[in-house]
Amino acid sequence: MKRMHFYFLFLLFLLPACLPDKADKDEPGDSDIDAARGFIQAALRGNFKSAANYMLHDSANDERLDAVARMPRSPDEKQGLWDASINIHERKLLNDSVSIIVYSNSYYKDNKDTLRVVKKDGAWLVDFKYLFDPNK
């Protein structure tokens, strides 16, 4: 009987550790930085389906993400991007619902990129097309 209690308690404490944490879910960020980091990290790892969960959906954004997802990469480049860390260089708050994030990654250290992050319906989402045409 004591052995049964031990197993029950063991399973009771083990179960929460096996459940996904909120951070493991691909949900829009609670802040502009969270959304940008989630999007960038998923894209660096080649998980564009996950990256799309952090993105504002319109035809231009969806087309650009699809194009980037189809870009051929060597195994070394894939591994380098997978292992890369994100470096946030600047955060410009334009107003309470739009910010600009300037970042790079440790694989392409000298290549700074810019994302626009917008708050829509209470969630921060990446406006990916801004990376390609910041004048729009």
Q: Can you give a write-up of this model?
A:
With 136 residues, the protein is α+β, with helices and mostly antiparallel strands. The protein has six helices and four strands. It has a four-stranded antiparallel sheet with strand order 1-2-3-4. A hairpin with a 2-residue loop joins strand 3 and strand 4. The longest helix is centred in the first third of the chain and has 17 residues, at 2-18. It is globular. It starts with a helix and ends with a helix. Mean pLDDT is 85; it is low at 5-12 and 18-24.
Shape: globular
Biggest sheet statistics: 4 strands, antiparallel
Q: How many beta strands in the DSSP annotation? A: 4
Head-to-tail CA distance between termini:
69 Å
How much of the sequence is in beta strands? Answer: 15-25%
pLDDT averaged residue by residue? 85
Derived structural class: alpha+beta
Number of helices: 6
Rg calculated over all Cα atoms: 19 Å
* SSE succession: HHHHHEEEEH
In the sheet with the most strands, the strands line up as: 1-2-3-4
